[in-house]
């Protein structure tokens, strides 16, 4: 069914995403085996198991004396245990001796425990009597102040699973296990095509009626943050043959294509037609119950997602987070994270009354401030075509589809940038 202007009726955000995910899996990049120095933020394509026990030996977590814990039982300040210093354990060396009953060995944090020793007394709980003897004023339990061999990871244990995005701490763990190269998915290539006769490059002066290219720079950053590689194709005129040609070329070496501008109704609206002509199934939706972002187009051409984004910068940000980022994560090989949407969402109080259009999910830029120990969301109001509104925002407050607005002091969910 179409409206009075000949447009397809708007669909909900939920239905639009459902149409997209029905066509998953999308085209996915190839695997590659890379050194760990190059892996930050990349997605593992194969499970990783520990090749050895970590640590390979029992080691101290404090500076002190390696002991047999039974020799310290009952020790107090008034009635300490007197133990003989056998030797000192040097860092990076294996002890060549065993402790006998009543003996201890001086040890530093990270040092390897000698045979018989099962715990470490902290230095501050001892008093040195002379060169060969210490007093222990506090008992230790078996295993206290010690990391046991294999306690961190057993040989053959799964360390990281396929689909996990590598973080700095993950790289550190791999290095600790001696794993210096890993199979990962190559990052998806995302082509960005800017359209519009009024758009000029950012480094060029503008004439009346012209605007500088903003969206390709915004999208490049969003793509990088989401784990993709942006490829800016340039700025093209609103002409069917021109747009069709650059999209065809982009599909040959891209995993996703983004077209900014040309998604609203008008004589120069060629985006939907181009997507339909690129392959099956073509356009999945054109127009969403969303503000900003109503003219959003989503389609698939033979396994490759193609999106037509509105021209307004605020709408580009919102549409990317809702539609493009989830698809890009699937293409990256990222496993589903059931807590993902909770990690960047906080509940706050709204700082003023906000009305909302019925039947539309509305995203409003907000800045956060603290008032009497509570976080409040202060709306940053402005037309969707304004450039600097989002630069002042910490995130967007969401007014659900069937809600007519929110009252000052009401709790809202804020999606953080």
Mind explaining what this structure looks like?
- The protein is an alpha+beta fold.
- It has 4 domains: 13-29 and 187-332, MoaB/Mog-like domain (Molybdenum Cofactor Biosythetic Enzyme, Chain A, 3-Layer(aba) Sandwich), CATH 3.40.980; 31-54 and 163-185, Molybdopterin biosynthesis moea protein, domain 2, CATH 3.90.105; 59-147, Molybdopterin biosynthesis moea protein, domain 3 (Molybdopterin biosynthesis moeA protein, domain 3, Beta Complex), CATH 2.170.190.11; 342-416, MoeA, C-terminal, domain IV (Beta-clip).
- 18% of the residues lie in helices and 32% in strands.
- It has 7 helices and 29 strands.
- The strands form 8 sheets. Strands 8-5-7-6-10-9 form a 6-stranded mixed beta sheet, with no helix packed on it.
- α3 runs parallel beside α6 and α4 (240-253) packs across α5 (271-278).
- The chain is elongated and about 90 Å long.
- 37% of the residues are buried.
- The model is unreliable at 3-7 (pLDDT under 50).
């Amino acid at each position: 069914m179409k409206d009075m202007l000949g447009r397809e009726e708007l669909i909900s955000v939920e239905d639009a995403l459902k149409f997209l995910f029905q066509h998953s899996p999308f085209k996915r990049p190839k695997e590659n085996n890379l050194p760990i120095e190059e892996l930050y933020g990349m997605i593992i394509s194969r499970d990783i198991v520990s090749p050895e026990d970590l640590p390979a030996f029992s080691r101290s977590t404090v500076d002190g004396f390696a002991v047999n814990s039974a020799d310290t039982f009952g020790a107090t300040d008034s009635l300490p245990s007197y133990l003989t210093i056998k030797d000192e354990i040097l860092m990076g060396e294996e002890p060549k001796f065993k402790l006998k009953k009543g003996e201890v060995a001086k040890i530093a944090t990270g040092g390897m425990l000698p045979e018989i020793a099962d715990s470490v007394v902290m230095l501050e709980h001892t008093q040195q009597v002379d060169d060969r003897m210490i007093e222990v004023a506090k008992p230790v339990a078996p295993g206290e102040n010690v990391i046991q061999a294999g306690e961190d990871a057993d040989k053959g244990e799964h360390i990281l699973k396929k689909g996990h995005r590598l973080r700095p701490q993950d790289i550190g763990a791999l290095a600790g296990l001696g794993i210096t190269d890993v199979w990962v998915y190559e990052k998806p290539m995302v082509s960005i095509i800017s359209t519009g006769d009024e758009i000029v490059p950012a480094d060029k002066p503008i004439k009346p009626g012209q605007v500088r290219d903003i969206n390709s720079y915004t999208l490049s950053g969003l793509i990088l943050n989401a784990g993709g590689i942006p490829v800016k194709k340039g700025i093209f005129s609103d002409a069917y043959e021109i747009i069709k040609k650059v999209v065809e070329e982009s599909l040959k070496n891209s995993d996703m294509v983004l077209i900014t501008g040309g998604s609203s109704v008008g004589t120069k609206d060629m985006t939907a037609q181009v997507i339909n002509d690129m392959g099956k199934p073509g356009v999945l939706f054109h127009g969403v119950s969303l503000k900003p972002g109503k003219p959003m187009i989503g389609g698939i051409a033979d396994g490759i997602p193609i999106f037509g984004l509105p021209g307004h910068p605020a709408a580009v940000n919102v549409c990317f987070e809702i539609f493009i980022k989830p698809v890009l994560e699937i293409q990256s090989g990222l496993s589903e994270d059931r807590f993902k949407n909770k990690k960047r969402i906080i509940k706050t109080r709204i700082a003023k009354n906000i009305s909302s259009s019925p039947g539309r999910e509305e995203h409003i830029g907000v800045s956060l401030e603290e008032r009497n120990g509570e976080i409040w969301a202060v709306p940053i109001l402005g037309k969707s075509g304004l450039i600097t509104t989002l630069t002042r925002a910490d995130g967007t407050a969401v007014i659900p589809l069937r809600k007519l607005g929110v009252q000052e002091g009401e709790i809202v969910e804020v999606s953080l940038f």
